[in-house]
Specification:
There is one protein chain. By secondary structure, the protein is of the alpha+beta class. It has a single domain, classed as Beta Barrel (OB fold (Dihydrolipoamide Acetyltransferase, E2P)), CATH 2.40.50. It is built from four helices and seven strands; from the N terminus they run ααααβββββββ. A seven-stranded mixed sheet has the order 5-6-3-2-1-4-7, with no helix packed on it.
Length: 143
Amino acid sequence: MNKIDIIKKFSLEYSDEFLKRVENQSLPQIIKLIFESPIAKIAKPIDLKNLKQLNKPTLFEISAVQNISEPKKTRYMNTKDCTLQFIFYPNIVAISLQKHPELDQDLFQLEGKKILIPQGTEICRSILILKQFTLINDYNQLL
């Protein structure tokens, strides 16, 4: 498997500019760049309109996370049994109905972080229905 096949495992369609930029870099350098760069600057937008599920694991960048099942005063807090709404660039929304005790109580701290959503995740009217995901804290998790 060549380097391009490996970096395409994240189901992102990279921009031509990004692919030229990483042409002569090692795989760890490329993965680090993917981790550190805003997704909007390295990949083309994902269109979920005609998909029923994700075909490959997909890397997203969190724009915002909100608690949508509790009163407005706790909108940016991860509280017990809450429904979380993730907003990814460019305006892709995901809903997670499960408890996520591993997420920070202050949901503002998740902005700008990367999240890996597994293959087979259901898509309903362009909204991802999250049953599981991995919050990426270090680029080594992507290698």
